[in-house]
Protein backbone atom coordinates (compact mmCIF):
# COMPACT_ATOMS: atom_id res chain seq x y z
CA UNK A 1 0.00 0.00 0.00
CA UNK A 2 2.94 2.30 0.73
CA UNK A 3 4.11 1.91 -2.86
CA UNK A 4 0.68 2.95 -4.15
CA UNK A 5 0.71 6.09 -2.00
CA UNK A 6 4.29 6.89 -3.01
CA UNK A 7 3.41 6.51 -6.70
CA UNK A 8 0.36 8.71 -6.25
CA UNK A 9 2.32 11.37 -4.36
CA UNK A 10 5.09 11.44 -6.95
CA UNK A 11 2.61 11.77 -9.76
CA UNK A 12 0.61 14.53 -8.05
CA UNK A 13 3.72 16.46 -7.04
CA UNK A 14 5.43 15.88 -10.36
CA UNK A 15 4.83 16.56 -13.95
CA UNK A 16 1.91 17.53 -16.07
CA UNK A 17 2.94 14.93 -18.62
CA UNK A 18 3.50 11.25 -18.09
CA UNK A 19 7.00 9.94 -17.59
CA UNK A 20 7.33 6.35 -18.80
CA UNK A 21 7.24 4.32 -15.61
CA UNK A 22 6.91 0.60 -15.48
CA UNK A 23 7.36 -1.07 -12.14
CA UNK A 24 6.65 -4.75 -12.43
CA UNK A 25 7.30 -7.25 -9.65
CA UNK A 26 9.95 -9.75 -10.75
CA UNK A 27 7.58 -12.66 -9.99
CA UNK A 28 5.08 -11.23 -12.49
CA UNK A 29 7.57 -10.31 -15.23
CA UNK A 30 7.52 -13.76 -16.96
CA UNK A 31 3.74 -13.40 -17.46
CA UNK A 32 4.23 -9.94 -18.96
CA UNK A 33 6.78 -11.44 -21.36
CA UNK A 34 4.22 -14.14 -22.30
CA UNK A 35 1.60 -11.40 -22.83
CA UNK A 36 3.87 -9.57 -25.28
CA UNK A 37 4.61 -12.81 -27.16
CA UNK A 38 0.93 -13.76 -27.31
CA UNK A 39 0.09 -10.28 -28.67
CA UNK A 40 2.72 -10.71 -31.39
CA UNK A 41 1.56 -14.24 -32.24
CA UNK A 42 -2.12 -13.22 -32.29
CA UNK A 43 -2.01 -9.78 -33.90
CA UNK A 44 1.31 -9.80 -35.72
CA UNK A 45 2.61 -6.92 -33.57
CA UNK A 46 3.29 -6.07 -29.97
CA UNK A 47 1.15 -3.84 -27.76
CA UNK A 48 3.24 -1.61 -25.53
CA UNK A 49 2.65 -1.61 -21.80
CA UNK A 50 3.49 1.84 -20.48
CA UNK A 51 2.74 3.84 -17.37
CA UNK A 52 1.95 0.84 -15.22
CA UNK A 53 2.81 -0.58 -11.87
CA UNK A 54 2.10 -4.26 -11.17
CA UNK A 55 2.69 -5.68 -7.73
CA UNK A 56 1.84 -8.45 -5.31
CA UNK A 57 -0.05 -7.13 -2.29
CA UNK A 58 -2.28 -8.26 0.55
CA UNK A 59 -4.85 -5.46 0.20
CA UNK A 60 -7.26 -7.50 -1.94
CA UNK A 61 -8.15 -10.16 0.63
CA UNK A 62 -10.95 -8.04 2.10
CA UNK A 63 -12.39 -7.58 -1.41
CA UNK A 64 -12.25 -11.29 -2.17
CA UNK A 65 -10.38 -10.61 -5.43
CA UNK A 66 -7.28 -12.25 -6.88
CA UNK A 67 -6.39 -9.16 -8.91
CA UNK A 68 -7.58 -5.63 -9.49
CA UNK A 69 -6.83 -2.86 -11.98
CA UNK A 70 -6.83 0.68 -10.64
CA UNK A 71 -6.84 2.84 -13.79
CA UNK A 72 -5.41 6.33 -13.94
CA UNK A 73 -4.01 6.68 -10.45
CA UNK A 74 -1.92 9.80 -10.84
CA UNK A 75 -1.71 9.27 -14.61
CA UNK A 76 -0.64 5.65 -14.15
CA UNK A 77 -2.42 2.32 -14.16
CA UNK A 78 -1.83 0.13 -11.12
CA UNK A 79 -2.50 -3.60 -10.92
CA UNK A 80 -2.56 -5.39 -7.58
CA UNK A 81 -2.42 -9.17 -7.39
CA UNK A 82 -3.18 -10.91 -4.11
CA UNK A 83 0.04 -12.40 -2.72
CA UNK A 84 -1.69 -15.26 -0.83
CA UNK A 85 -3.57 -16.29 -3.97
CA UNK A 86 -0.39 -15.96 -6.08
CA UNK A 87 1.52 -18.35 -3.81
CA UNK A 88 -1.06 -21.12 -4.30
CA UNK A 89 -2.22 -20.48 -7.89
CA UNK A 90 -1.07 -22.63 -10.77
CA UNK A 91 0.85 -21.23 -13.71
CA UNK A 92 -2.10 -20.98 -16.10
CA UNK A 93 -4.34 -19.31 -13.49
CA UNK A 94 -1.62 -16.74 -12.77
CA UNK A 95 -1.34 -16.08 -16.50
CA UNK A 96 -5.09 -15.67 -16.90
CA UNK A 97 -5.48 -13.25 -13.99
CA UNK A 98 -2.50 -11.16 -15.16
CA UNK A 99 -3.97 -11.08 -18.68
CA UNK A 100 -7.44 -10.24 -17.31
CA UNK A 101 -6.14 -7.25 -15.35
CA UNK A 102 -3.97 -6.10 -18.29
CA UNK A 103 -7.15 -6.33 -20.36
CA UNK A 104 -8.70 -3.70 -18.11
CA UNK A 105 -5.64 -1.47 -17.62
CA UNK A 106 -3.92 -1.70 -21.02
CA UNK A 107 -6.55 -2.80 -23.54
CA UNK A 108 -9.46 -0.92 -21.99
CA UNK A 109 -11.60 -4.08 -21.98
CA UNK A 110 -14.66 -4.53 -19.78
CA UNK A 111 -16.02 -7.82 -18.51
CA UNK A 112 -17.50 -10.22 -21.05
CA UNK A 113 -19.71 -12.60 -19.12
CA UNK A 114 -20.98 -14.61 -22.09
CA UNK A 115 -20.80 -18.39 -21.85
CA UNK A 116 -20.91 -21.13 -24.48
CA UNK A 117 -21.49 -24.85 -24.18
CA UNK A 118 -17.99 -26.10 -24.78
CA UNK A 119 -16.76 -29.53 -25.72
CA UNK A 120 -14.03 -30.50 -23.29
CA UNK A 121 -11.83 -33.54 -23.80
CA UNK A 122 -11.05 -35.23 -20.49
CA UNK A 123 -9.32 -38.52 -19.65
CA UNK A 124 -12.82 -39.95 -19.10
CA UNK A 125 -14.18 -38.79 -22.45
CA UNK A 126 -15.87 -35.73 -23.89
CA UNK A 127 -18.10 -33.57 -21.72
CA UNK A 128 -20.04 -30.38 -22.44
CA UNK A 129 -19.92 -27.56 -19.92
CA UNK A 130 -20.71 -23.84 -19.97
CA UNK A 131 -17.41 -22.01 -20.36
CA UNK A 132 -16.44 -18.34 -20.77
CA UNK A 133 -15.94 -17.01 -24.29
CA UNK A 134 -13.41 -14.48 -23.02
CA UNK A 135 -10.45 -14.03 -20.72
CA UNK A 136 -12.44 -10.97 -19.61
CA UNK A 137 -15.07 -13.18 -17.92
CA UNK A 138 -15.85 -11.46 -14.62
CA UNK A 139 -14.36 -14.20 -12.43
CA UNK A 140 -11.17 -14.46 -14.53
CA UNK A 141 -11.32 -18.20 -13.94
CA UNK A 142 -11.02 -20.54 -16.88
CA UNK A 143 -10.38 -24.24 -16.22
CA UNK A 144 -6.90 -25.36 -17.24
CA UNK A 145 -8.12 -28.00 -19.70
CA UNK A 146 -10.43 -25.50 -21.41
CA UNK A 147 -7.63 -22.89 -21.57
CA UNK A 148 -5.22 -25.36 -23.16
CA UNK A 149 -7.77 -26.58 -25.74
CA UNK A 150 -9.16 -23.12 -26.66
CA UNK A 151 -6.21 -20.80 -26.04
CA UNK A 152 -5.98 -19.59 -29.66
CA UNK A 153 -9.66 -18.60 -29.87
CA UNK A 154 -9.58 -16.96 -26.42
CA UNK A 155 -6.48 -14.92 -27.34
CA UNK A 156 -8.02 -13.78 -30.64
CA UNK A 157 -11.14 -12.60 -28.81
CA UNK A 158 -9.04 -11.00 -26.07
CA UNK A 159 -6.58 -9.04 -28.21
CA UNK A 160 -8.89 -8.16 -31.10
CA UNK A 161 -12.38 -8.35 -29.62
CA UNK A 162 -13.41 -10.88 -32.31
CA UNK A 163 -15.07 -14.22 -31.66
Describe this structure in words.
This protein is an alpha/beta fold. It has one domain: Collagenase (Catalytic Domain). 40% of the residues lie in helices and 24% in strands. It has 5 helices and 6 strands. The protein has helices at 2-13, 29-43, 83-88, 91-105, 144-160, and strands at 22-24, 52-57, 67-73, 76-82, 115-122, 125-132. Strand 5 and strand 6 (125-132) form a beta hairpin. The longest helix has 17 residues, at 144-160. The chain is globular. The N and C termini lie far apart (38 Å). Residues 1-16 have low confidence and may be disordered.
Entry summary:
With 163 residues, this protein is of the alpha/beta class. It has five helices and six strands, in the order H-E-H-E-E-E-H-H-E-E-H.
Keywords:
two-stranded antiparallel sheet; 5 helices; four-stranded mixed sheet; 163 residues
**CATH C-level class:** Alpha Beta
Radius of gyration: 17 Å
Termini gap: 38 Å
Using the 3D structure, state the CATH architecture: 3-Layer(aba) Sandwich
According to CATH, the fold-level topology is Collagenase (Catalytic Domain)
The percent range for strand residues is 15-25%
What is the subunit organization of this protein?
A: single chain
**What about the largest sheet?**
4 strands, mixed
What order do the strands of the largest sheet run in, or round the barrel if closed? 1-2-4-3
Structural class: alpha/beta
- The best one-word shape is globular
Task: Give the averaged pLDDT, no decimals.
Answer: 84
Unreliable spans: 1-16
The string of secondary-structure elements, in order, is HEHEEEHHEEH
Number of helices: 5
Total strands: the figure is 6
Amino acid sequence: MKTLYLSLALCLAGCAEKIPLNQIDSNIKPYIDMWHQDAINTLGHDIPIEFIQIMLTSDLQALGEDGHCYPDIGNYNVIHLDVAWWQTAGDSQRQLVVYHELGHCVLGRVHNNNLIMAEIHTPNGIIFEPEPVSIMYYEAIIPDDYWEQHKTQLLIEYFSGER
